[in-house]
Amino acid sequence: MTPSAIPHFTLNNGVKIPVIGLGVFQTPPAETTAAVLAALETGYRHIDTAAAYGNEREVGEGIRRSGIARDEIFIETKIWVTDYGFDETLRAFDTSSAKLGVDTIDLLLLHQPMVGMLDKTVAAYRALEKLLADGRVRAIGISNFTPTILTRFLPQITVTPAVNQIELHPYFAQVANVKANHDARILTQAWSPIGGITHYYGSAATSTFTDTTIAAIGQQHGKTPAQVMLRWHIQQGRQVIPKSTKAARIAENFDVFDFELSGAELAAIDALDKGVRGGPDPDQPQPGFLKYPIPGA
């Protein structure tokens, strides 16, 4: 598939985002540039990073080495909680922009809601609104916000978030969160979309990659479990950011546009939901997050 033919979702402000991007969470900086290059050579045109990942600089290097025009690549990053507050967030944008080596960021998110410091979270989002108004970012959003937090947060801001990036895979479908996002005209973006985080549930836990239902559906289409899960998301209107550092796996994850799941297959995957979260619970205070300040550019 040519990059120009990659399907897109349209955000609530009219900006278009590819339905699939490369995530670089937990990708070591030394491996990030090569992974980004492999993705862009495969045809990806969206890269998702974050200040807290410690690899924004290497993402920018991969984009530059690709030789692809800046306006053809959708760059997403996130502000970490230690930089919440209006002025602090504006400075954090400058830091991320410098590390990435770009003047404009396509999508800028708040990385966590931080329920114990919602006032600073709101102030940080108001800084995002200013960056949007000034043309420094093309779209703004949030990450790991639950319906409970959205109910408190949305009345205090002016610009509805374009995206809410949340943990979402067949074993943790977050139906209520997806509905809350949809009702507010916020695109759901899935992190751990193929359930890699399920490896950490415990040695006896079933991984999404070995789930018999997903495997059987894949066999029907000549596709891998990862490709089935990504197709499940995309057909249900969710943007996905699978991660890998292996070129072959990066290419495999992108090869999801030549088949379609039936309604019965989608429902069978929906029925796998265990309601088990792998990451931190956003509705609970996370003071440990404040122990990891972001270094300057």
Annotate the secondary structure layout.
Layout: E1 8-10, E2 16-18, E3 22-23, H1 29-42, E4 46-48, H2 56-66, E5 74-79, H3 86-100, E6 105-110, H4 118-133, E7 137-143, H5 147-153, E8 163-167, H6 175-183, E9 187-191, H7 212-221, H8 225-235, E10 239-240, H9 247-254, H10 263-270
Parallel strand pairs: 3-4, 4-5, 5-6, 6-7, 7-8, 8-9, 9-10
Antiparallel strand pairs: 1-2
Keywords:
TIM Barrel, alpha/beta, two-stranded antiparallel sheet
Outline the structure in words.
The chain is of the alpha/beta class. The chain has one domain: TIM Barrel (Alpha-Beta Barrel). The protein is built from 10 helices and 10 strands. The protein has helices at residues 29-42, 56-66, 86-100, 118-133, 147-153, 175-183, 212-221, 225-235, 247-254, 263-270, and strands at residues 8-10, 16-18, 22-23, 46-48, 74-79, 105-110, 137-143, 163-167, 187-191, 239-240. It has an 8-stranded parallel β-sheet. Strands 1-2 form a two-stranded antiparallel sheet. The radius of gyration is 18 Å and the shape is globular.
